[in-house]
Design brief:
alpha/beta, five-stranded parallel beta sheet, 10 helices, globular
Length: 263
C-alpha cells in the first residue's frame, strides 16, 4: 500500500537550504559514528540493508557514498555503481542483476543508481516501451516489499540540483584532471531533456514512495547540506529498530588477553 501523503515535486524544493561549516562537521561526524554502530550491530544481529542513491548528474551521490564507505568495513559493505545493462544483463529481465547484488545476512549494499533506471533514463530515452516502464512501478514496489518483508531495511535518497548549479559543477569537473573522467557527452545530452527527466522523476517519487521503502528527497544545490542530510536519512532507516549498543566484553576473551599481557 502506498503512503498517504502529498507527493514531493522537485520544482517545489527549497534549493537555498544551506548548512554552516561547524554544524556540517558535527553532523557528519555523528552520522559516520552512527554508521559504524549500525555496521557493528548488523554483524551481531545478522540484519541487512539496501541503500539506493538516485538523482541528477553531479548532485553529490558519490560524495555522500564516499563519506559512508570511509568508515565501513569492506567485508560487510559493498557499493554497486550501476550503468546501462551490458551483455547478458541486457538480454534478461531488468531486475535480474539487482537480485544478484543483494546483501547477505549482516551486510549492507549501496546502489549508486538502481532499478529505478527503468522508469527514469530508460523511459525518457526510449530504451523501454511505455507498457514496460508503466508496469515497472508495481514491479519495483513488489520487489522492495519482498525485501522489507524478509527483514531488509531499505533507504532511498534522491538528490536534486537546478540547471545552473549542475553546469557549475560540470565546469569544475572539466577543469579538474582528477574529476574529468566523470564528465561525458551524455551528461550534456541529458540536459536537453531536463523537463522530461523532471516529469519522470516526479511520477517515480509519487508512485514508489511506500511505507516499507519511503523516498528521502533532498535539495542539493548546497553540497554539504545535501551530503549530511542524505547520510542522516540513510542512517535513520538502517538503524530503525536495531539495538546499536556495543556487544558486551567476552570474559573469556578478556581473560585470554590478561594472560597474554600478564596483567
Amino acid at each position: 500500500m502506498s503512503r498517504k501523503k502529498k507527493a514531493v515535486r522537485l520544482a517545489d524544493l527549497d534549493l537555498t537550504t544551506r548548512i554552516d561549516e561547524p554544524d556540517y562537521e558535527r553532523r557528519l561526524a555523528d552520522a559516520q559514528t552512527c554508521f559504524q554502530q549500525i555496521h557493528q550491530a548488523y554483524l551481531k544481529t545478522r540484519d541487512d540493508g539496501v541503500v539506493v542513491f538516485e538523482g541528477w548528474d553531479a548532485a553529490g551521490k558519490g560524495g555522500a557514498i564516499r563519506r559512508m564507505a570511509s568508515v565501513m568495513d569492506p567485508r560487510g559493505f559493498r557499493v554497486w555503481p550501476i550503468g546501462a545493462p551490458q551483455g547478458r544483463d541486457a538480454e534478461r529481465h531488468y531486475m535480474a542483476r539487482f537480485w544478484e547484488r543483494l546483501p547477505a545476512e549482516g551486510e549492507i549494499a549501496v546502489f549508486d543508481r538502481s532499478w529505478y533506471g527503468r522508469v527514469l533514463v530508460e523511459r525518457v530515452e526510449g530504451f523501454a516501451t511505455e507498457p514496460e516502464w508503466e508496469r515497472a512501478y508495481e514491479e519495483i514496489n513488489a520487489f522492495e516489499k519482498q525485501l522489507a518483508d524478509a527483514g531488509t531495511r531499505i533507504a532511498k535518497v534522491f538528490l536534486y540540483i537546478d540547471r545552473d548549479e549542475q553546469l557549475k559543477r560540470f565546469e569544475k569537473r572539466l577543469h579538474d584532471p582528477l574529476k574529468r573522467w566523470k564528465l561525458s557527452f551524455e551528461d550534456f545530452r541529458n540536459r536537453e531533456k531536463w523537463d522530461d527527466y523532471e516529469r519522470a522523476a516526479d511520477e517515480m517519487l509519487a508512485r514508489t514512495d511506500t511505507a516499507w521503502a519511503p523516498w528521502h528527497v533532498i535539495p542539493a544545490n548546497h553540497k554539504k547540506y545535501a551530503r549530511v542530510a542524505a547520510l542522516e536519512a540513510v542512517a535513520s532507516r538502517l538503524a530503525d529498530g536495531v539495538d546499536l549498543s556495543p556487544p558486551p566484553l567476552d570474559p573469556e576473551l578478556e581473560a585470554r588477553f590478561r594472560k597474554e599481557a600478564k596483567v
